[in-house]
Amino acid sequence: MLNKALLTLIALVIAIGGGAASVWYALHVQKGAGAITIGAWTAFPDIGTPEADPYTNARVAREGVLALGRAEGLAFVAAHDSAGQPLLRECAYRIEGNLPVARFWTLYAADQSLDFIRTGKLRPAALQSYQVLRRPDNSVLVDASPSPTPGNWLITSGEGPMYFVLTFYDTPIASSTGLSGIELPRIVPRGCNA
């Protein structure tokens, strides 16, 4: 009798613990059900639509974010550089390349909750399409680092993991057909202050 009760208890712990762990993983992973990955960038194009899967809806509810609908825009998140290494706050990165057509876009460095990194400086924590300097071929080059650099500088600070969030507003890539054939900027590491 005690043997059956112990086996039942072990089975329940494994079932409940395994289920809770799988849900936690699905809600915290940046790549998963419904994700579209282009280079180092990942987006969930179904966020804010009736076609969103239950895990995406749960992620939006847990984080309390205002999801953009398909007609409004699309946010891409990068957790790794273009070589596949995790992004770190104490490192410097160069974000370079062409951007898809959009009426407006923003780029910022984020913490694990995808909130912008608070630096304690008066400098804005994000760059946007109307303020960046462009190259002659209309591409952009942004240096993201704790130390100032000439040109387009995205300030970061602190230590630990970091994400880049690139959001396009009023863009044709937000439709399901607009995602084919687009390229997003590369994220190239430039060294760390370790």
Overview of this protein structure:
With 194 residues, this protein is of the alpha+beta class. 19% of the residues lie in helices and 27% in strands. The chain has helices at 2-28, 54-63, and strands at residues 36-38, 41-43, 73-78, 91-97, 104-110, 126-128, 140-145, 152-155, 163-169, 186-192. A six-stranded antiparallel beta sheet has the order 1-2-3-9-5-6, with no helix packed on it. Helix 1 (2-28) crosses helix 2.
Q: Note the overall shape.
A: globular
Rg over alpha carbons = 20 Å
Sheet/helix structural class: alpha+beta
| Topology as a string of helices (H) and strands (E) | HEEHEEEEEEEE
Uncertain runs with pLDDT below 50, 5 residues or more?
none
Helix content: 10-25%
Number of helices: 2
Would you tell me the overall average pLDDT?
81
Q: In order across it, which strands form the biggest sheet?
A: 1-2-3-9-5-6
Q: How many angstroms separate the termini?
A: 58 Å
User: Biggest β-sheet, characterized?
Assistant: 6 strands, antiparallel
Strand percentage lies at: 25-35%
Instruction: Please tally the β strands and state the result.
Output: 10
Question: Quick summary of this structure?
Answer:
This protein has 194 residues and is an alpha+beta fold.
Keywords:
27% strand, 19% helix, alpha+beta
List the helices and strands and how they pair.
Layout: H1 2-28, E1 36-38, E2 41-43, H2 54-63, E3 73-78, E4 91-97, E5 104-110, E6 126-128, E7 140-145, E8 152-155, E9 163-169, E10 186-192
Parallel strand pairs: 7-8
Antiparallel strand pairs: 1-2, 2-3, 3-9, 4-7, 4-10, 5-6, 5-9
